[in-house]
Amino acid sequence: MTATAPITQDVMTIPRKLPEGPINLVGLTRDGMRDALIENGTPEKQAKMRAGQIWQWIYQWGKRDFDEMTNLSKTYRAELAEKFAIEVPEVVTRQVSEDGTRKYLVKIAGGHEVEVVYIPEDGRGTLCVSSQVGCTLTCSFCHTGTQKLVRNLTAGEIIGQVMIARDDLDEWPEQGAPKDETRLLSNIVLMGMGEPLYNFENVRDAMKIAMDAEGIQLSRRRITLSTSGVVPEIARTAEEIGCQLAISFHATTDEVRDKLVPINKRWNIEVLVEALRAYPRVSNSERITFEYVMLDGINDTDADAHRLIKLIEGIPAKINLIPFNEWPDAPYKRSSGNRIHRFADIIYKAGYASPIRKPRGEDIMAACGQLKSATERARKSRKQIQAEAGL
Length: 391
Ligand code: SAH
Ligand code: SF4
What we know:
Number of domains: 2
Largest sheet: 9 strands, mixed
CATH class of the largest domain: Alpha Beta
Bound molecules: S-adenosyl-L-homocysteine, iron/sulfur cluster
Order of helices and strands: EHHHEEEEEEEHEHEHEHHEHEHH
Shape: elongated
């Protein structure tokens, strides 16, 4: 692909229901689960209640075996077990960093692999979830963007990542235990592999499951979706998911952003900022997070900081500065600590929170933008990456 190649979202999709074999209940919406039960013989009158019961077993108590669903009759459980499955992706490897960050490589249907990262912090923790295998976009500083193979994850494969992490953290509550206020998995960020807004429906359905009051029960304020700027889907995110929004901004001129985040050629800074102005009001989010990767000599001058402040004027915002996480053959270098602090200071003085993200899990290549599954290791050459970035 050249720098001027069109941005596509040509991705493979797999049907949720395989031609033969049981239907996986994980990832179905509440209505979807009810319909599936009816189609498979549950009387219509009972279906809503049954779906509610099964839902609770799966998402509140973390059960994967119909036999443990003790408020359902034995015969009904046997019928369910014949027609349905409760399946989450398989964990292939689990690595733990010196700083406690955990990285899971999980295998999904078709033998593809995606990465999921758990980042603990003060007794709580954030799960960084993937939405696609690889990414169709080719941001020049992102390791995932060099991966050729792409397929959208199903809703089940997305919420399955949360379930796997809860398994590993041993965080399914005991029945009857008091509601747990501090959770090890307290936040979700859609900042793993892939562009979540190019897989909108599956991401939405999975996050609805994560937010459902009879289940995993995470507040929409504890879920952050990060996008490189798929403008037409931004208003829809507010209306249909209502979670927090993070934007991979990364540059203050179209010239530089075109190179760093090529989707900018389709929807430029001005168009993007317009869409963002409408967001907090629609979704009741307090603020939009602007992510800004600090690349030495590329986007990190004082003038950039001042331009950034001007561009986002009037938008309730927080600016997350991300020291560039280097990966093998990456065409950029991380800005110096001094530079990042100076940049943060200018933004802070203009009245915006400007935290500098602490790189986590670097020793296991789990930091932001370093994810790339083992399925497709054929790396583009440094030359190719630079050519695409127009360097
Ligand atoms: N595709 C979405 C979400 C996944 S990327 C998006 O682009 O927003 C999550 C965040 O990590 C984005 O802000 C992305 O720009 C940033 N990122 C990518 N590569 C990085 C790297 N090597 N170092 C630091 N941040 C990186
Ligand atoms: Fe895709 Fe996000 Fe990486 Fe860009 S930064 S290539 S949109 S995952």
